[in-house]
Amino acid sequence: MADPMRIRAALAGDETTVRVLMSHPMEPGTRKDAAGALIPAHFIKDLEATHNGKTVLKAMFSGSVSQNPFLSFKFKGAAKGDKVVVKWVDNKGDSRTDEAAIA
Amino acid sequence: VTQSQAQAAVDQASFQVKTLEDALKAIGGTPATSDQVSVVSPDIAENGAVVPVGATSKLPNTTEMYLIVEKNPTPLSCGFMIPAGTAADVQTRLKMGQSTNVIAVVKADGKLFSATKETKVTLGGCGG
Amino acid sequence: LNHKDVLAAKPGAGQALYDLPKFGNVSFLHFTDCHAQLTPIHFREPNVNLGVADAVGRPPHIVGEALLKHFKIRPGTAEAHAFTYLNFEKAAKTYGKVGGFAHLATLVKMLKASRPHAMLLDGGDTWQGSATALWTNGQDMVDACKLLGVNAMCPHWEFTLGEQRVKEIIEKDFAGQLDFLAQNVKTNDFGDPVFKPYVIKEMNGVPVAVIGQAFPYTPIANPRYMVPNWEFGIQDENMQKMVDEVRAKGAQAVVVISHNGMDVDIKMASRVTGIDAILGGHTHDGMPAPLVVKNAKGQTLVTNAGSNSKFLGVLDFDVRGGKVQDFRYKLLPVFANLLPADKEMQAYIDKVRAPYKAKLDETLAVSEGLLYRRGNFNGSWDQLIVDALMEVKGADMAFSPGFRWGTTILPGQAITRELMMDQVAITYPTSTLTEMSGETIKTVLEDVCDNLFNPDPYYQQGGDMVRVGGLAYTCDPNAGSGKRISNMMLNGKAIEASKTYKVAGWAPVAEGAKGEPIWDVMEAYFKNHKTIAPRKINTPKLVGMQGNPGMVV
Ligand SMILES: [Mn+2]
Ligand SMILES: [Mn+2]
Predict the structure, then answer these.
(1) Which of A5, A23, A15, A1 is nearest to A75 (CA)?
(2) Are C104 and C361 in contact (CB under 8 A)?
(3) C119-167 tens-digit pLDDT
(4) Which end of chain B has fewer CB within 10 Å, C or N?
(5) What is the largest CA-CA distance in chain C?
(6) What is the CATH number of the domain that holds C401?
């Protein structure tokens, strides 16, 4: 199982900025190893962030998003202490869900 | 369709297309250039494997945002669904194999708009 | 008459040069890119410093007589010698050596006597450039700057000592005394600031702010593995934010110490508002007067203060009614013969050099010709380096990075180990021998050339063109990216795209390269060449540069 995400969520005014660092190789499936064999694709393809059960962002990634992907977005309507939940699913069906309290 | 129900026009196959033209086709057509859209990408990438790229849109009802790296083998890099209450302002980090245009395409009120920025990927060295 | 005495013997010469009338109530003293030169040296300014697009003929892209004319400096004077390459050999003998921290210290003290409020600012490239800086891991310069009374600095080559060492110096040596400022360096995970962005101080009751700007392309121009956790970039938006923040905190004068390079500073000054002056470095341009750049809300002075401890910039502001009303600026050359060595600083320098003295002073060869580095395409010192690389490594051709630092050797002068190290003292000195296809060679030249001549300075990376030995080529700086290099020839034969060539080089930015350090290559060469004949400098045939005031050949 992949390492946990590092999530920072901070409220400023009425807007919450969420920043997420995922741990994932993000292999595009087009690279070759030292022996010349194709390295199989292995990347996060879908991500969803929710606040109080409501979707605040959906993202679709390809293998050209950098290794250990970073994501930053902003939404309104949250209070300090609320939880933001982030879930990703990769092309092999692995997934990971992590959360952070809004500071 | 309300914004929270908005479904992406694109599917995983869209991320496999090989040309800018096909990437735009997958998103839904040719966008109009708009000064209300901006793409944030460095002038010179410090590391082609990790290039910070973002997009913002000031257009009302922006529901989808896409980042395209024109010279990548598969140009369409990622897409974002923006529900009501979420800002049309996202940032991520993308791979770039060579100097390229980076294009942000957004869908607002069902229409497509774009902005473009050139990022240089250099071999490095030298310096005073 | 002893040459050393020419200037000193002229009554009032020093006074005429250094007696700056007091002006205003806020003052900054600024030196930059000293490249660890603690002792007086010679330094020849370039005869090729081409500007393209908007920068044609705009300072700093003027050289020689065009520069003198533009800044109204009388030819044949000490100042003309300081600011240009004209009659260099003769003038260098007439006016003597320049720079050195003991002489700089005397000048700083003189100016502080009339301006006790002045802040002393260092534009960076301070901890690298000499043997002793390399051998002491920057410590000789760190202590020299503290003794000189530097208040704040911004960085570039400092980072080639590695993240840990930089942090150690800031936390241990600089704590409470010297501010290391860089608004444009962030962690590359969450983008948190790594360094203090600015400092606010009061001068004669006026709050003033100094903001720091690190060299934005450090992880590209130098090895990224030295700063693996940090991200750079120009960061205009954050600069605007910092300016607004210090203004909101009451700063009535705002200056930026910048290591952007002058063309980037000029563009930044046109985009970011609220900066009174950008005191710039990196491009090593000794500019006698600032450029005044207009922007949406006012104007910004942009200066560049040369290199190798050769100059000290003095900026005086008259701040009244909450803002800068007027200014005076002067870039003072540091003539070692006109400024007696400061005793305390000289004692420190002697002490720090003592353990290395024998090694530094050893003569490796004698040069019959002038050896210098600075210039867009090549210098005779670089030619000597590529000649040595080709011979010692058995290569068809050699590349040497377009570094702008490096001192000058006069005809007949001994090449000591110290003077050799002035050209090559870096923390990634590996020399390399690589098989490269003709196509790759073209790609490399095009890549570096675009970093020098891209019409938009934000796409320039800073640094001069890679110096090439063995390879002849034509360069069209005005052509587009990837189209500037043509007619590549080796020994009269056209380079073939698919053929491979043996290319020697040094200072690789990628990790893991193998080879002896460049100084070993040079010493091996000097063992077989005790007398260095004047170099024939290999430079490209240039297209479209006729009449450009940034070049005299
Ligand atoms: Mn420098
Ligand atoms: Mn520099």
Answers:
(1) A15
(2) no
(3) 999 999 999 999 999 999 999 999 999 999 999 999 999 999 999 999 9
(4) N
(5) 69
(6) 3.90.780.10
**Minimal CA–CA distance to C219: which of B51, A86, B19, B90?**
B51
Pair C385, C282 in one domain: no
Res B3: pLDDT:
40
Chains in touch with A (≥3 Cβ pairs < 8 A): B, C
Whether residues C337 and C367 fall in one domain? no
Of C293, C325, C350, which residue is a domain's last? C350
Reply yes or no on whether the pLDDT at B4 is more than 60.
Answer: no
pLDDT of C185-211, one tens digit each? 999 999 999 999 999 999 999 999 999
Give residue limits of the domains in chain A: 6-28+39-101
Contacts of C190 in chain A (CB under 8 A): 6, 8, 19, 21
Q: Could you tell me the residue range of the domain that residue C529 belongs to?
A: 362-542
The span from the CA of C431 to the CA of A66, in Å, is 32
Bridge partners of C313? C30, C331
Q: Specify the number of domains making up chain C.
A: 2
CATH of domain A6-28+39-101: 2.60.40.10
pLDDT digits (tens, 9 = 90+) for A53-62: 999 999 999 9
Chain A CB contacts of B49 under 8 Å are: 66-67
In a domain, C61, yes or no: no
User: Looking up tokens 């009061």, which residue turns up?
Assistant: C202
- Asked if the C-beta of A14 comes within 8 angstroms of chain B's C-beta atoms, the answer is no
Per-residue pLDDT, C1:
41
Query: Does the pLDDT of residue B8 top 70, yes or no?
Result: no
